[in-house]
Design brief:
Elements: H1 3-18, H2 22-36, H3 44-50, H4 57-64, H5 70-85, E1 91-100, E2 110-114, E3 119-133, E4 136-142, H6 148-151, H7 154-160, H8 171-185, E5 191-194, H9 196-199, H10 202-210, E6 215-219, E7 225-227, E8 233-234, H11 235-245, E9 252-259, E10 262-275, E11 284-292, E12 300-308, H12 313-322, H13 324-335, H14 347-370, H15 379-382
Parallel strand pairs: 1-5, 5-6
Antiparallel strand pairs: 1-3, 2-3, 3-4, 6-12, 7-8, 7-10, 9-10, 10-11, 11-12
Length: 402
């Protein structure tokens, strides 16, 4: 089946549960096709022009006026991704992206930290969830972060169409909500991964412990940990000795992921730890991974792993490397597929646009996975190792729940 036919079959299949009339079904298919096209600026007018509409009304009505449920579309996107990319050793990855906006009318907009510019900007913040496996990766869930100032402004919330039951939730709590939805949906995965903005949150870690979710999350160096191998010393003391020692045997050089210039190698060390006031799930244990730059040994990053006892450190490094997949999705979504190039201001249209824009990279990921000469290697093979693996043993994957 051709690329065009595959896309038509996908949009027809997904539009079935969403719409009762043919007009919005066709508008939905046109919008997905236009998001995938080489349109310079993916606003409603340029997208409409690309698919041959005289005006932008049909696409604008699809997002603002038509009756359909964005969460139903989200469930369809998840089903499609898991059907084609799902593996028992998959990884769920959380990160947030931002859409810089002018004015104060767009839902959730406020002066807040913007990762794209590295400073405070007037923007919307979007916690996203990516599913990644050996064959591909794509978004499967999303949230819009409402700053606290929005929670107390009833008039502003009403104007933006925010449902009354939606209250303030921190970004880690929004990720907990998404993980809860993935568990309920039976999404198959072995690990959860995230950056230090999420790894430092005790509530998110506690949720993973309660649900027996294995994770590898970046954490700040001052996270209160106790080194098990150090006889119960604070981790900082053990790290000081470890880093000052410089003994080559303490470090193993490995690659956890591919970069734009090939495999990215780092020196890694692992320390068994316990987390202050937080026990791991039964049968699981905590480990800190230390990643050190080869070119600049003073440049380090720390990861807290929560995994079955005896898990090979190599496997934990692989999971840490998968975290970059969501950054690829964010970059591709924003630069190429119109993820943040919307002209909607209200709650419901925002969720409709962003969820539709999630389908575009999912289609590309599945199409790539189907190519007969696809070069995607599985997650284990992708982690190059130049020393024997004597860091532990593998464990069975987390089973898909019903």
């Amino acid at each position: 089946m051709s690329w065009d036919a595959e896309l038509s079959a996908l949009t027809e299949r997904i539009a079935g549960p969403l719409f009762t009339r043919p007009e919005p079904r066709q508008s939905f298919a046109d919008l997905v096709r236009a998001l995938l096209a080489d349109v310079p600026r993916k606003n409603s007018w340029q997208l409409a022009d690309h698919v041959g509409h005289r005006k932008a009304y049909r696409l604008e009505w699809l997002l603002n006026g038509a009756k359909w449920d964005a969460d139903t579309l989200r469930d369809e996107v998840r089903t499609y991704v898991v059907e084609h990319l799902g593996r028992p050793d998959g990884v769920l990855i959380a990160d947030d992206t931002q859409a810089i906006k002018k004015g104060d009318k767009s839902v959730g907009v406020a002066p807040q930290y913007c990762g794209a510019s590295g400073q405070v900007e007037n923007c919307q913040v979007m916690p996203m969830l990516t599913y990644a496996s050996a064959v591909g990766h794509a978004f499967i869930n999303r949230r819009l972060y409402l700053p606290e100032r929005w929670a107390d402004e009833a008039g502003r919330r009403k104007e933006a169409g925010v449902p009354e039951q939606v209250g303030f939730r921190t970004k880690p709590h929004q990720v907990i909500d998404m993980l809860t939805e993935e568990l309920a949906a039976g999404t198959p995965f072995r690990y959860f991964a995230a950056d230090s903005g999420y790894g430092r949150d005790p509530g998110l870690r506690a949720f993973c412990h309660e649900q027996e979710i294995a994770y590898v999350m970046a954490v700040p160096v001052d996270l209160p940990l106790i080194a098990v191998r150090g006889g119960g010393e604070p981790l900082g003391h053990v790290l000081d000795r470890l880093l000052a020692c410089g003994t080559p045997a303490l470090w193993e050089r490995r690659s956890c992921a591919d970069g734009t210039k090939g495999r990215r190698f780092y020196d890694w060390a692992a320390v068994a730890v316990s987390v202050k006031d937080q026990l791991p799930a039964p049968g699981l244990a905590h480990t800190v991974l230390i990643r050190r730059s080869i070119s600049d040994p003073g440049e380090m990053e720390f990861f807290l792993a929560h995994a079955p006892t005896g898990t090979a450190v190599t496997e934990l490094i692989n999971a840490a490397g998968m975290r970059w997949k969501i950054e690829e999705n964010n970059e591709q979504g924003k630069d190429l597929l119109g993820l943040t190039q919307y002209q909607v201001r209200k709650w419901t249209p925002w969720h409709r646009h962003v969820t539709t824009a999630m389908l575009a990279p999912a289609f590309l990921a599945v199409t790539r996975a189907r190519l007969p000469d696809d070069t995607a290697a599985d997650a284990t093979a992708a982690c190059a190792i130049d020393q024997p693996n004597d860091w532990g043993k593998d464990h069975p994957p987390r089973e898909k729940t019903s």
